[in-house]
Design a protein that fits this description.
Strand content: 25-35%
Strand order of the largest sheet: 1-2-3-4-5-6-8-7
CATH superfamily: Gcn5-related N-acetyltransferase (GNAT)
CATH class: Alpha Beta
Number of helices: 4
Helix content: 25-40%
Length: about 180
């Protein structure tokens, strides 16, 4: 089942489509150091990514699009296990020409609101310790960093790399 389409703040988050294959390849080739994305990123990685997005097993993967809903200009993911009270936000990548525009912040905020609406109590964030843009984005969103250690990435290139973890709790009283 594809993820729900999310709208707001001049951005649309929708399920990646087959037409997004080439833009994904360009996006991820240019975004070295994104923890949950293989590097180097190849065409078969794109095939696997689109297949995983279509299945939505263990979470949702969204294409970030401008308000007109046209081209893919980034991605964001929310991963979770059935029955879990905490979700993991990650896989955030934005095309170079959109960096510094607040696009990643707005897209991540939509996903966080989706997590609250879905009943999660908290959202976690893991990123490579040297990824200053990711650390800054997490802080802008209100994440409190609570741990440093080695990456939990399943990709060999990042396995064992220094990483940091942040936590954002749902505001207000919990059910």
């Amino acid at each position: 089942m594809p993820p729900p389409t999310l709208h707001g703040a001049g951005v649309i988050l929708s399920a990646p489509e087959a037409a997004d294959h080439a833009p994904l390849l360009a996006l991820y080739t240019a975004n070295e150091g994104t923890l949950n994305i293989p590097s180097p990123y190849t065409a078969p990685d794109g095939d696997a990514y689109l297949a995983a997005a279509a299945r939505s097993e263990g979470g949702h993967i969204w294409a970030i699009r401008a308000a007109d809903g046209a081209e893919l200009i980034g991605t964001v993911a929310l991963r979770f296990s059935p029955g879990a009270r905490t979700a993991d936000l990650g896989g955030i990548a934005v095309a170079e020409e959109y960096r510094g525009t607040g696009l990643a912040t707005r897209a991540a905020a939509l996903v966080i609101q989706h997590a609250w609406d879905a009943g999660f109590d908290a959202v976690e964030w893991e990123c490579l310790a040297h990824n200053e843009a990711s650390v800054a984005l997490a802080r802008r969103l209100g994440f409190a960093f609570y741990r440093e250690g080695v990456s939990s990435s399943s990709f060999e290139r990042y396995r064992g790399a220094p990483a940091v973890w942040g936590l954002l709790r749902r505001p207000g009283p919990l059910p």
